[in-house]
Design a protein that fits this description.
The chain folds into three domains: 3-87, Arc Repressor Mutant, subunit A; 92-157 and 260-289, 3-Layer(aba) Sandwich (D-Maltodextrin-Binding Protein, domain 2); 162-255, Periplasmic binding protein-like II (D-Maltodextrin-Binding Protein, domain 2, 3-Layer(aba) Sandwich), CATH 3.40.190. Strands 7, 8, 9, 10, 11, 12 and 13 form a seven-stranded mixed beta sheet that branches. Strands 4-3-5-14-6 form a five-stranded mixed beta sheet. The chain has a two-stranded antiparallel sheet with strand order 1-2. 29% of the residues are buried. Helices cover 43% and strands 22% of the residues. With 295 residues, it is an alpha/beta fold. Keywords: DNA-binding, Transcription, Transcription regulation. GO terms for molecular function: DNA-binding transcription factor activity; transcription cis-regulatory region binding. InterPro entries: LysR_HTH_N, LysR_subst-bd, WH-like_DNA-bd_sf, WH_DNA-bd_sf. Belongs to the LysR transcriptional regulatory family.
Length: 295
């Protein structure tokens, strides 16, 4: 089925005249008439009612017309997407990130985007590897596992892993705490798939320490809420809530941090555009957190 003929059918139906439609689509009237007759033969439906030289869309034609318009709109969308793919443009972008990173990093960054930037949608990384998230439809992964291989990646910044305590805590006047001191406290942490928890467990092993009292929380907000209630020390990379006091956690080599990265597939049709977005996100993270990073 020739889409050009369908487009001409829509014009004939709109103008109610083959001659006026022929002038609009820039073909001769006999040629347009033959197209309409050929379309009727192909569809095995009378699209028009002809009486005394007048032409009107038939009941069948009126019923088919919305479907033709829908089909042509889909063709237009397909061609638009194909042009974007061919040009390496990115009109829409799916970013996979942990919930914490979405709230503290991605959402504030999205607020800085302009009308000419890709329209972003955010999905929860949900413990997936970078490769698995990209294979599931994400264009860009932020805050995933930097150990995934075969991906393009840029380091965004170094985020401190904080120990959060309320103002009533004995540490509230301090700026830092050692891993050994922390291990003696009830610790409010997320489950092991989360980045801050993995780092905490790794650092404890490096220092030959046992974290005997770890309360696993369902989310970072709950961990901070429990810390505010005096239930323990929340260990997170999140921005502070509930007027909690943040302390740096000191290991053997200095403050404990985690590297925030952005990853994408090097074979993505818009790999260049994704790198541009990641570079801008890097600059945003540096300005927000006051830390530098290298690519």
């Amino acid at each position: 089925m020739d889409l050009r003929v369908l487009r001409n059918f829509v014009v004939v139906a709109r103008t109610g005249s083959v001659s006026r439609a022929a002038d609009e689509v820039l073909i001769t009237q006999p040629a347009l008439s033959r197209q309409m007759q050929s379309l009727e033969a192909e569809l095995k439906v009378d699209l028009f009612e002809r009486s005394r030289g007048r032409l009107a869309v038939s009941a069948s034609g009126r019923e088919l017309l919305p479907h033709v318009v829908e089909l042509l709109a889909a063709d237009d969308r397909l061609r638009s997407v194909a042009r974007s793919l061919s040009a390496g443009r990115l009109d829409q972008m799916t970013i996979a990130a942990p919930a914490t990173t979405e709230a503290d990093v991605i959402a504030p960054f999205v607020a800085t985007l302009g009308l000419s930037d890709p329209v972003p949608s955010i999905v929860d990384l949900a413990g997936l590897s970078d490769s698995a998230a990209l294979g599931s439809g994400a264009d860009l992964v932020v805050g995933g596992d930097p150990r995934s291989q075969g991906l393009s990646r840029i380091r965004l910044c170094e985020l401190p892993v904080w120990a959060y305590v309320p103002a009533s805590h004995a540490w509230s006047s301090r700026t830092s705490v050692t891993v050994a001191e922390l291990s003696a406290q009830p610790i409010l942490a997320l489950a092991p798939p989360f980045r801050a928890r993995r780092i905490l467990d790794d650092v404890a092993r490096e220092h030959d320490l046992l974290l005997a009292d770890v309360i696993e929380c369902t989310g970072p907000q709950i961990a901070q809420a429990l810390a505010a209630a005096g239930r323990g020390v929340a260990v997170l990379t999140d921005d502070p809530r509930f007027d909690l006091h943040a302390l740096q956690i000191m290991g053997r080599d200095g403050p404990i941090t985690t590297t925030l990265t952005a990853s994408w597939s090097p074979t993505h049709h818009a790999a260049g555009a994704l790198r541009d977005v990641a570079t801008r996100l890097q600059a945003f993270c540096v300005s927000r957190y006051g830390t530098s990073s290298s690519g």
